[in-house]
């Protein structure tokens, strides 16, 4: 990272025990945005007095009240302050001003587990075993407090600089009564995410600590296979698969991995490995899949080779380069100076951005597929694409880049899956209903304009489209669009 004077980390004890004086916004120097949630922006910040670095989650009070999310925010604060374990994001302090609420969290800047799986395709056995063990260790702590996460998924598992997991997002967590066994299902409203939701919640609207063990089974599968165990073109069909526990393993799948997944993906919560009736965490940790794991050394051990190697990758360097430039700016000046910074980053890069091309159309951190593929490579990608739920919309053409963007029109903001297809074609789909919603018409007058790391505009002669990429890759979309325009429209 750049010399920005924000290097030291807070000690590992949360500020809830040592918070002597309420902090204020003025106590911090704000840096780049680390992430955007539906209700918050998470910004890197340095405490001026101590030089300590925090991820500050900022929530707009007005928005929270309007969206009726006050109980969720209170729950998140309450649950986070009960947790004291290295594999969870730590809450060090909270404060507020008239407009906003601030949560001071430990920094987890190495991205989400979901991104890592996407970027690597899948994890090798050593890597999957190591991170499964960290998740198990975290869940053991969580469940010992009778707390159910209820939305455990790779998006909510972040990595810190040491490449250790940091589980986050406790807005939908449920605290069970202390005298509850934790294993007995309790009525719950629907929360969670389709691919990881447990059958008991779908069937009886009930939840228990073993519901997180179901999600763990899905995550271990996803790490090793690179895809969800339960996946269908829409939520309804995904739920049907979950209720029937219908999923398949690829051929030659590791025997022990298969066994632990099967023992976690049990329709009946009490039959899941790790639930109290199945020997609790002792039995789960003793499963053969975890052979070689030293449970008391998980925190001090080096991360697996695959992950170490990946984090040194060019894509990470690429992001660091951008961060280096923006680190020196206050958050407020960030957007104004955006274009200047980008051109500085570009100047620093050697060669054309074709060199930075990632070989995957849905690699959210990359530039998608290159345009000048050989016939053989094109066929290969077309074949691979056939297993994707988006293939149908490409109508036999190759998807060059895709990803979720928010499309703003007037006061309405809609989440859409954008597919940039050979031709060129730029279409967008409602990811919930899987309906094609529209197309941005190409012409040589189409122009992409970055506005910040998240926001960009696509100008066409008749309309300007306002788009937001929550994973901060607006510039990569713009570059890809310009690249395609040059390829198809310049004579
Ligand atoms: P949602 O309800 O949409 O999940 P939210 O408003 O509760 O979102 P979070 O999910 O907590 O917000 O955070 C939004 C994003 O910010 C995350 O996806 C992650 O990329 C980033 N983020 C959150 N916490 C941290 C952290 N401690 N360190 C670094 N980045 C973080």
Automatic annotation (TrEMBL):
It is found in: Cytoplasm. GO terms for cellular component: cytoplasm. ATP binds at residue 57. Gene3D superfamilies: Phosphorylase Kinase, domain 1 (3.30.200.20), Pleckstrin-homology domain (PH domain)/Phosphotyrosine-binding domain (PTB) (2.30.29.30), Transferase(Phosphotransferase) domain 1 (1.10.510.10). Residues 1-10 have a biased composition (Basic and acidic residues). Residues 1-29 are annotated as: Disordered. It is an enzyme of class 2 (transferase). Its EC number is 2.7.11.1. The keyword Glycoprotein does not apply. Keywords: ATP-binding, Cytoplasm, Developmental protein, Kinase, Nucleotide-binding, Serine/threonine-protein kinase, Transferase. GO terms for biological process: cellular response to oxygen-containing compound; intracellular signal transduction; regulation of developmental growth. One of its GO terms (molecular function) is protein serine/threonine kinase activity. It holds the Pfam family PH_3. The keyword Cell wall biogenesis/degradation does not apply. Residues 28-290 form the Protein kinase domain. It catalyses: L-seryl-[protein] + ATP = O-phospho-L-seryl-[protein] + ADP + H(+); L-threonyl-[protein] + ATP = O-phospho-L-threonyl-[protein] + ADP + H(+). Belongs to the protein kinase superfamily. AGC Ser/Thr protein kinase family. PDPK1 subfamily. This is 3-phosphoinositide-dependent protein kinase 1. The gene is Pdpk1-001.
């Amino acid at each position: 990272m750049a010399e920005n004077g924000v290097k030291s980390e807070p000690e590992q004890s949360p500020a809830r025990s040592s918070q002597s004086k309420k902090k204020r916004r003025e106590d911090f120097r704000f840096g780049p945005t680390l992430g955007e949630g539906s209700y918050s922006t998470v910004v890197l910040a340095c405490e001026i007095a101590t030089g300590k670095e925090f991820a500050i989650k900022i929530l707009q009070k007005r928005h929270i009240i309007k969206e009726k999310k006050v109980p969720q925010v209170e729950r998140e604060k309450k649950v986070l302050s009960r947790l004291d374990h290295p594999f969870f994001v730590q809450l060090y302090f909270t404060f507020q001003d008239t407009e906003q609420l601030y949560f001071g969290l430990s920094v987890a800047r190495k991205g989400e587990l979901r991104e890592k799986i996407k970027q690597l395709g899948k994890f090798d056995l050593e890597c999957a075993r190591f991170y499964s063990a960290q998740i198990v260790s975290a869940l053991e702590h969580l469940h010992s407090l009778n707390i159910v996460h209820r939305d455990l998924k790779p998006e909510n598992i972040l990595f810190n600089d040491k490449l250790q997991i940091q589980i986050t997002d406790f807005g939908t967590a449920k605290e069970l009564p202390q005298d509850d066994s934790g294993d007995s299902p309790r009525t719950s409203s629907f929360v969670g995410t389709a691919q990881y939701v447990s059958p008991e919640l779908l069937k009886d609207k009930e939840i228990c600590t073993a519901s997180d063990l179901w999600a763990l089974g899905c995550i271990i599968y996803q790490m090793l296979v690179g895809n969800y165990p339960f996946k269908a073109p829409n939520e309804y069909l995904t739920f049907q698969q979950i209720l029937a526990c219908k999923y398949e393993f690829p051929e030659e799948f590791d025997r022990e991995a298969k066994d632990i997944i099967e023992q976690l993906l049990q329709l009946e919560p009490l039959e899941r490995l790790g639930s109290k009736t199945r020997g609790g965490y002792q039995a789960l940790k003793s499963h053969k899949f975890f052979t070689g794991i030293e449970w008391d050394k998980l925190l001090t051990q080096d991360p697996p080779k695959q992950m170490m190697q990946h984090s040194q990758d060019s894509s990470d360097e690429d992001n660091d380069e951008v961060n280096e430039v923006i680190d020196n700016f206050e958050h407020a000046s960030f957007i104004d100076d955006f274009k200047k910074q980008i051109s500085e980053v570009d100047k620093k890069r050697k060669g054309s951005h074709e060199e930075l091309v990632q070989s995957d159309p849905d690699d959210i951190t990359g530039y998608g597929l290159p345009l000048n593929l050989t016939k053989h490579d094109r066929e290969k990608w077309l074949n691979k694409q056939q297993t994707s739920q988006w293939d149908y919309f490409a109508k036999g053409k190759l998807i060059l880049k895709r990803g979720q963007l928010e499309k703003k029109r007037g006061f309405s903001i809609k989440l859409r899956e954008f597919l940039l297809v050979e031709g060129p074609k730029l279409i967008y789909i409602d990811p919930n209903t899987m309906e094609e919603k529209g197309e941005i018409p190409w012409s040589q007058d189409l122009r992409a304009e970055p506005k910040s790391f998240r926001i960009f505009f696509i100008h066409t002669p008749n309309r300007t489209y306002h788009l937001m990429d929550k994973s901060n890759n607006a510039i990569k979309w713009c570059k890809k669009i310009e690249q395609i325009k040059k390829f198809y429209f310049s004579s």
